[in-house]
Structures are given as C-alpha cells and as structure tokens.
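task queued by scheduler; priority normal; single chain, no ligands, no partner chains; default sampling; output format set to structure tokens
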Amino acid sequence: MSSAAPRTTGRDHLWSVDEHLEDILATVRPLEPIELQLLDAQGCVLVEDVTVPVSLPPFDNSSMDGYAVRVADVAGASEEFPAVLEVVGDVAAGQAELLHVGPGQAARIMTGAPLPPGAETVVPVEWTDGGLGEGPVAGMRARSLAPEGASGYVHVYRPAEARAHVRAKGSDVKAGDRALEAGTVLGPPQIALLAAIGRGTVRVRPRPRVVVMSTGSELVQPDQQLRSGQIYDSNSFALTAAARDAGAIAYRVGAVADDAETLRSTIEDQLVRADLMVTTGGVSVGAYDVVKEALQSVGDEDEAGSGIDFRKLAMQPGKPQGFGSIGPDHTPLLALPGNPVSSYVSFELFVRPAIRALMGLEDVHRPRTTATFTADKALTSPKGRRQFLRGTYADGAVTPVGGAGSHLVAALAHADALIVVPEDTESVEPGAEVEVVLLG
C-alpha cells in the first residue's frame, strides 16, 4: 500500500518522467505476505527460503521399463549367449512391498519404481526377449493382457554396469538443500518443485488487485450500437489486459459518464477490492475533465496523507497525469490521460512499475536496449519533451509505426517497442542509435 502522500509543487511546475516515476515508486510499498495454495501462488514472489524436507527422488528408482538384476548375472551376455534369468515378479511405481532379487533372478520393473533389494542395475526391456523367447522385443505387453510376463524366464542379450538406468536417491535435490530462495517468482517449474517436495502452500506477496475504469460520456461498450459522437471504450480493455500481463489480478469497470459525483461514488465502491486504482480520461484542462473535479478535494476530506496531485509532465504523449492515494487504506490511484496511446504509454511507464513494486519484485521495469533507427526520413521531436514513439524492433534495429498522434490505436497494435527520444533532442536521423523500451 502507499505509505505517504506524493510530493506536490506549484501548479505550473513541469515534471520530468523520472521525477514522476520516482514519486510513485517512493510511495507504493509491497503488499503484505500471505500464505497461498500452490496454484493460487502462481506469478507471486516468494518471501522466504524453502528448504527441501525429503530428498528427490526419495529412493533409488528405475529410469527405464526393463528388468532389475544383479550385475554378475548379466556379465558377458550377448545375443549369441544370452543370460537366462528367472523372473520373480513385477515391481511397479507406487508399490509398497518389494521383491528380493537373488542370484540368477530378475524382477520386471517399471519406470519410476523402486529398485528392489538385491538388484544392482536395470537392463532395458529392449535388451531382452521380454520373456517370450523370440529375440529382442520393443516393449512389454500390458499386464492385464499377459499376466504371465511377471513369471517364467527372460533372456538378456547385453550386459549392464552397476546402477545403470537407476536414478539415485537425492540425485535431484537432497534433504536440507535450499529449493528456492526468497524473491523467486513462482512459475510452473517452481510450483512443480514445491509440489514435488511436499509443499501444499507457500508464503508469498499476493498479486495486486487492480481496478481499471474509463471516464467519458462518449464511451460505449463493444457490441453496442454507436450513436453520433460516440466511440467504443478501448482504454479499459487495453489497461485491464496490460495489468494482467504485468502480474496483477485486474478488474475492469464499465465506462463512467462525465459526472463528478457518479465517478466519485464509483471509485469509492471499488475501493473494497483494490490495491491499486487506475482511471483514464478527465485529467486535462477541459470543462468536462471530471476526474480532477471528483478527486482533487479528496485530501481535504479523508485522513491526512490522502489526496490526488494532478501534474503536467515533460513527455509526449501523456502530458497530463494524476497520482496519489484515496480512501481509509490510502489506496494508490493513478489517473491517466484519455487518448488511447497516451493512456497505454503512461501505463507502461508508470502503472506497470507500480504493480511490480506492489508484488515485491526488485526489477520493476521493462527491458531497454539501444537500436539503430531505420526510417525513410528524420524523426522530429518537440524540444523539452521526452517523446515515446511506437515502433517495431528486430535484429538490433527499430522502425517507427504510425505517427505521433495519441489516438492512433491501429499503429499501437502493431508495435512491440517504444522509441525514446530525449528532451534535448529535436531530430533523429536514420541510422542514429536510439534507446528502446521492449514491450514484448
């Protein structure tokens, strides 16, 4: 949760991108750890070292379907002079009572089954006649169809060294080893390891709950009929998907009309399920920019430390931004501009790092690299503004997609990178090296 109100400055102060992000990350704190079931912990950050209670595997077991035998009994075996051994029964995976393999004997064994007492090695079934007496076989017959395969005699055509095709106890991890360390993000392989060592629950920082809502009386839900002056609400869908991609549990709220009281009551209703709130639209200087109207006085009515600070940033797109906290728990709220590209770029630069910080991740940023700028002509950029242009990145080169307009959703859909043009750069020539934020 947030720990303090954001810094505020004079109304005409132009914030840099770095100042705004620094303020957000200084305010947002990782969520408190909780104990979760393994599948519920997917994508979460581990907050404690996990020690292995039992070795993996917990016993010597076979890595092949075949026969468990003594080394001396198959020494010198060949197709011309096979070793002939008495089959004393089957050893299946999960079997509790084990057979004993004595001199001249073999136990038919399945992959994963414990190596029975007396046996020293495993010969694959392909090295035997499978008990049929008709030369090498490709596999075993199903026990239900041929139960006699667990008795009789087997011909072995090749020798085997000691402990061949045997997985040793503790060969994966040993009891007392550290399986995972604090700070690990739990993906499918980590969850598999936790399950394998018997952990049903784990202590993690939970995935943050993010509520996303768009504002604007012109917004209509997809699949509804558009009337004159209306557009479909794409922002709430884009940012909800982006929040999920960042690791959050995201809730999308239907577009809220341009009415300050309606917006304020909607936000207050959503606080119960939010660790972070994100709004889009209504943060500029128009007469109907209701987010500012609805939230600007929150700090006067809530507990000390709450309040939303509306700012102008030296960036393009995304100049108008709002940030602060709201409600009794000082829930962080980021108010983004309403133009689709502005809101998405703002999400990548400010909201995504906030989500990752709530999760307790050390690296909260998208990867960045340098690339060769490829285009037919020079790129212009406004002086004093850090510009973020959509682009496609491949093989060390980046190409702009679409123009600089903050409404160009189609171009955004084809971009996998943001081209960063610094505040003091007004032109970027083809072939120049530029900084690139990788989105994919």
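post-processing summary
- The mean pLDDT is 89.
- The longest strand covers residues 83-91.
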